[in-house]
Amino acid sequence: MVSKFPHLRQDFLASIVVFLVAVPLCVGVAVASGVPAELGLITGIVGGIVTGLLPGSSLQVSGPAAGLTVLVFEAVSEFGVATLGVIVLIAGLLQLAMGFLGIGRWFRAISVSVVEGMLCGIGLVIIAGQIYAAAGLKAPDSGLGKIAGLPGAFMDAFGSTKALTSLAIGAGTIAVIVLWTRMPKAVRTVPGALAAVVLATVVTLAFQLPVATVQVEGLLGVVQPPGAEAFGELASPAIWGTIIAFALIASAESLFSAAAVDRLHNGPRTEYNKEMVAQGAGNTLCGLLGALPMTAVIVRSSANVSAGARTKASRVLHGVWLLLFAAAMPWALALIPIPALAGILVHAGWKLIPFRQITALWRAHKGEALILVVTAVSIVAVNMFEGVLIGLALSVVKTAWEASHVKLEVVDKGAGPIQVYLAGNATFLRLPKIMDSLEALPQDRPVELDLSGLHHLDHACRTALENWAARHSATGTEPVKVTQTETSPDGEKVTAA
């Protein structure tokens, strides 16, 4: 048995930790989306067992994600819970099509700074949001609101014995996880998060502390496959915009997350097209069950890696635990204090913030460090998807700016024509610099403009240079002589005047 499954022990223990992390996320995302909590658990089960078994990313864990909460809430408000299954089903089929068409591999071209910024931004939002959960308080909806409201939340907590007790359980959970790394090796075979939750549960029960616990009723009553009336909604053009948004955002979040998770471990890399197919298969099944849409979840995935998972067995087992406890033993979940689970998430969020990478990037590549920070701030201020898009846009602009490096040299011997040499890549980004130098040349002197050193001359620059040459020649001086490199019919580079 050990030879067939050499990492079974590590994967088993990691699955317990991921299960404990997944429970509050599944329930919390469902409630925030305006649907029964059990629908979030169903999505978590499908993400673990079904998507977990499929090839793609070995350690990434899928389930309901906060990034789709607003979209789901709006869809449920407009079309109803009964139609949610149809939306998720069709979105899943679109993901399957994109995966089979090979679109997923394009997500590999993601800047490292954007990925690190995504981790940092998500970590900050998680920490801020779970502090409210640890204190038993309602968190603001936006990431910026969560952070801005923390001082007031602490003031409210200090005025309430119940909130202070709840915070103490959360803080104690974090302390146990941190101090667990200093325990003897034999003790550390049990994950610190698991030990912390067990201790928090025992303390809560022993002293009958007034803290909130997980509340789940059961799964059978909420499974509602979409009916004919729900499929009839597909005739409405409005619903297709929602479906496409679900498919694109869920795919982007999953594959961005895969890039981030790959940076957290040294195991097999993600096969992006296969991961897209796996996500599509999971969402298709979630739609048939009338559940929430699924994406890969960075919190669960990072917890999976941190807990020592080696293979996909950990994520499959976490789905089994969700099914077992939520369907057959909901009373067991009711024993777990929510502030303890919040403590696990705060610790996981803290580990997502790349402190060392930010420092190293700032010393060596300040531009990359700026992209990281802007991506993180954008995720906090807006949301994950748009924050990552802002980071990617900045990365593209930075690359374009660096790729458009051009060298301009003016040689004036005092007599005869002024010689101007341009080398590098002349693009519209460098056009102001080029034109300032050319327009500063004396109007009464002939000019020889040598462009043979250019590797690339875009349309904007070519047009601007032609217009400048025409203006300069119109003053009565000799026409500007332009030398440039052209391609001969046989493909060779030749210099032509």
UniProtKB/TrEMBL annotation:
It is a multi-pass membrane protein. Keywords: Membrane, Transmembrane, Transmembrane helix. InterPro entries: SLC26A/SulP_dom (IPR011547), SLC26A/SulP_fam (IPR001902). Signal peptide: none annotated. The lineage of its organism: Bacteria, Bacillati, Actinomycetota, Actinomycetes, Kitasatosporales. The keyword Membrane applies. The keyword Nuclease does not apply. Residues 475-497 are annotated as: Disordered. Residues 8-375 form the SLC26A/SulP transporter domain. It comes from the Bacteria. PANTHER family: SULFATE TRANSPORTER. The chain crosses the membrane at residues 12-32, 39-59, 79-103, 115-135, 163-181, 193-214, 234-256, 277-299, 319-348, 369-394. Pfam families: Sulfate_transp. It is found in: Membrane. This is SulP family inorganic anion transporter. It comes from Streptomyces levis.
